[in-house]
């Protein structure tokens, strides 16, 4: 009997790549407008859109212009806008009291956006750095970042934002115990439906450089953030942080920065299956923009490919300064 030999090649994996129709049919991951959270920078003034040199195409906007951006984002179908304040240096103090002022820039912006664009969810950042004369996310005492007293202040900041109408609270400070303290505070004041998206695995990263320019914190920061943000060499610690934050009442978790930490995104999603987000931070944005502007890469292709990578790694969504540009492309 003749031996049966399979015709060569046995499996032609190129078959499902041969046409756009087949490629579209078998694609495992897609990027959609629903995956996007758009971070924006707010400043004082009227009708101001001030360019940020290290983030081409990103502006510090006065509240009236941020409201216009929120309406545009809502029309594009972007589900969430996230606010970062550029605080006047005269309001930065050691006690950071501006952080929980009900009339601070962030809280006024929340109120204005909720009124003008009620269908877009508003997310906030909770950390003391925009208000701290030292540029740190927590109170500084004798050169140390103090945990527990900082957490008390973060709860006051959270509650002020919830009263203004924030939908999602984003603690980015990396203090211990903050999630349960914030959750308890929110529940006790009747904010059962205000969600917490915790910056759970936030690394001490060089990729935040342009952001610190954008919020005017680079000059202020004394030292580094290594005693509270994660060491870039660690993975297991990220899992412990996420587990802890979920136990303490976080609804969603975040990995930050993004592209250099896709392994962390993947492991967290595989382990916990909870809503998982990545922050494509300012330095990642700046690198793509700079290379694009020099003609070294095709900006649009690299932007879409980098965002799709987060979906492939298991993320449910991405915070990205590219959000409106991406939404326009995806909406056709
Ligand atoms: C502040 C905060 C930072 C970012 C978001 N919230 C900077 C930092 O921790 O120094 C960085 C975002 C970006 O780089 O795009 N706690």
Automatic annotation (TrEMBL):
Active site: 202, 256
E.C. number: 4.2.1.24
Annotated pathway: Porphyrin-containing compound metabolism; protoporphyrin-IX biosynthesis; coproporphyrinogen-III from 5-aminolevulinate: step 1/4
Keyword S-adenosyl-L-methionine appears in the UniProt entry: no
CDD domains named in the record: ALAD_PBGS_aspartate_rich
Record key words, sorted: Heme biosynthesis, Lyase, Porphyrin biosynthesis
One of the protein's GO biological processes: protoporphyrinogen IX biosynthetic process
Catalytic activity: 2 5-aminolevulinate = porphobilinogen + 2 H2O + H(+)
Pfam families: ALAD
GO CC list: cytosol
Span of the signal peptide: none
Example of a GO MF term: porphobilinogen synthase activity
Gene3D superfamilies: Aldolase class I
Annotated InterPro entries: ALAD (IPR001731), ALAD_AS (IPR030656), Aldolase_TIM (IPR013785)
Family statement drawn from the similarity comment of this UniProt entry: Belongs to the ALAD family.
NCBIfam families found in the cross-reference section: PRK09283.1
Subunit and interaction comment: Homooctamer.
Protein name per UniProt: Delta-aminolevulinic acid dehydratase
Species: Epibacterium ulvae
């Amino acid at each position: 009997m003749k031996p049966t030999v399979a015709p060569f090649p046995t499996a032609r994996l190129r078959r499902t790549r041969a046409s756009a129709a087949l490629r579209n049919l078998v694609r495992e991951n897609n990027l959609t407008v629903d995956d996007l959270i758009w971070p924006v920078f707010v400043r004082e003034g009227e009708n101001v859109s001030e360019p940020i040199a290290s983030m081409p195409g990103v502006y510090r906007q006065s509240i009236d212009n941020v409201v216009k951006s929120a309406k545009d984002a809502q029309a594009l179908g972007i589900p969430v806008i996230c606010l970062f304040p550029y605080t006047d240096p005269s309001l930065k103090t050691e006690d950071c009291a501006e952080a929980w002022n009900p009339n601070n820039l962030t809280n006024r912006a929340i109120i204005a956006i909720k009124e003008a664009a009620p269908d877009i969810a508003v997310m906030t950042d909770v950390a003391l750095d925009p208000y701290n004369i030292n540029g740190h996310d927590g109170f500084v005492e004798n050169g140390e970042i103090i945990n527990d007293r900082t957490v008390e202040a973060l709860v006051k900041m959270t509650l002020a934002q919830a009263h203004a109408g924030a939908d999602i609270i984003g603690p980015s400070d990396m203090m211990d115990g903050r999630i349960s303290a914030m959750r308890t505070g929110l529940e006790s004041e009747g904010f059962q439906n205000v969600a917490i998206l915790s910056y759970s695995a936030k690394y001490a990263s060089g990729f935040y450089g342009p952001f610190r320019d954008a919020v005017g914190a680079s000059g202020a920061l004394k030292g580094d953030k290594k005693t509270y943000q994660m060491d870039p060499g660690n993975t297991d610690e990220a899992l412990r942080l996420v587990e802890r934050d979920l136990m303490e009442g976080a609804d969603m978790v975040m990995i930050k920065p993004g592209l250099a930490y896709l392994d962390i995104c993947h492991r967290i999603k595989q382990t916990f299956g909870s809503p998982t987000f990545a922050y494509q931070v300012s330095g990642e944005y700046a690198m793509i923009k700079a290379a694009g502007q020099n003609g070294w890469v095709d900006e649009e292709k690299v932007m879409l490919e980098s965002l799709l990578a987060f979906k492939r790694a298991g993320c449910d969504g991405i915070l990205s300064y590219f959000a409106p540009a991406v939404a326009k492309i995806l909406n056709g």
